[in-house]
Automatic annotation (TrEMBL):
Positions of the UniProt region annotated as Disordered: 1-34
Location of this chain's protein in the cell: Cytoplasm
Gene Ontology cellular component terms for the protein in this record: cytoplasm
Annotated GO biological process: methylation; protein repair
Top-level taxonomic group: Bacteria
Identification of the protein by name: Protein-L-isoaspartate O-methyltransferase
Pfam families given in the database record: PCMT
PANTHER family: PROTEIN-L-ISOASPARTATE O-METHYLTRANSFERASE (PTHR11579), PROTEIN-L-ISOASPARTATE(D-ASPARTATE) O-METHYLTRANSFERASE (PTHR11579:SF0)
InterPro entries listed in its UniProt record: PCMT, SAM-dependent_MTases_sf
Similarity comment text for this entry: Belongs to the methyltransferase superfamily. L-isoaspartyl/D-aspartyl protein methyltransferase family.
Chief location: cytoplasm
Keywords carried by this UniProt record: Cytoplasm, Methyltransferase, S-adenosyl-L-methionine, Transferase
Length: 259
């Protein structure tokens, strides 16, 4: 069976043209999210700043060397607005526009570490991963350092463009950005060794489970009957799906469609 052709960067879905490269303008237009400017004179590009964040993550229970190295390598301040850059290495979520947020470093680390705990990842290394909710691109950059290939979907065009502009300087050849409805997944790239979602709904979209490889793992926030979210881990085994509910989390709502 011929392997599906890998999409380009950024990818094209359902006849949608990839957004054109951003053109510098004297002032931002309403509704347009520009890439976060790299802060100057604050020392945030220092490896020591990220090392202290990594030390806090390790002290909090993150014990995967690969995850800690990835978090230490990705400059989080380049993915947030310059006005918030001094908070980039604190363990806090930050707004990135359009009522969306960049997740806490501890939550990113926890979810990526859970992906690496899948049977297939322990045996073969983490292969192809589907990320639902690209946001500003930070988690995709982290995933690129622990997975062989990353397909990252975003339903909001302005954020898709922002992530593209944030990630382009990093030249991550194994990351493919997709503008599309994340609730449908991306069947052309399936099966996936891991699926990770940055938005939570009341039910797991069937497409995600269907696109998960045997031995693969899905990690996503899920809302319970009381409306509170918790991390849900779904492992696909030879005998079916195994679900495990973990600690409480707080993510933006999962929505369908493209906007």
């Amino acid at each position: 069976m011929q392997a599906p052709r890998r999409p380009g960067f950024p990818a094209r879905l359902d006849g949608l043209q990839p957004p054109r490269a951003a053109v510098p303008a004297p002032a931002a237009k309403p509704g347009v999210l520009r890439p976060a400017a790299a802060p100057r004179g604050m020392g945030l590009d220092s490896a020591a700043v990220r090392a202290r964040m990594v030390q806090r993550l390790a002290a909090a229970g993150i014990d995967s060397t690969a995850v800690l190295q990835a978090l230490g390598a990705v400059e989080r301040h380049r993915f947030v607005d310059s006005a918030l850059a001094n908070q980039a290495y604190e363990d806090t979520s930050l707004p990135i526009g359009l009522a969306q947020t960049i997740s806490k470093p501890s939550v990113v680390a926890r979810m990526v570490q859970l992906l690496l705990g899948a049977d297939i990842a322990r045996e073969q290394g983490l292969g192809r991963v589907l990320e639902i909710g690209t946001g500003c691109g930070y988690q995709a950059a982290v995933l690129a350092r622990v997975a062989r290939e990353v397909y990252s979907m975003e339903r909001l065009r302005a954020l898709h463009e922002k992530a593209r502009d944030n990630l382009r300087p990093l030249r991550l050849a194994n990351v493919h950005l997709l503008l599309g409805d994340g609730m449908l997944g991306y069947p052309a790239g399936a099966p996936y060794a891991g699926i990770i979602a940055a938005a939570g709904g009341e039910a797991l979209p069937p497409a995600w489970s269907e696109q998960l490889a045997v031995g693969g793992r899905l990690v996503a926030p899920m809302a319970g009957a009381d409306g509170r979210q918790a991390l849900l881990v779904v492992d696909r085994t030879l005998h079916g799906l195994k679900q495990t509910v973990l600690e409480g989390v707080h993510f933006v709502p999962l929505k369908s469609g493209i906007a």
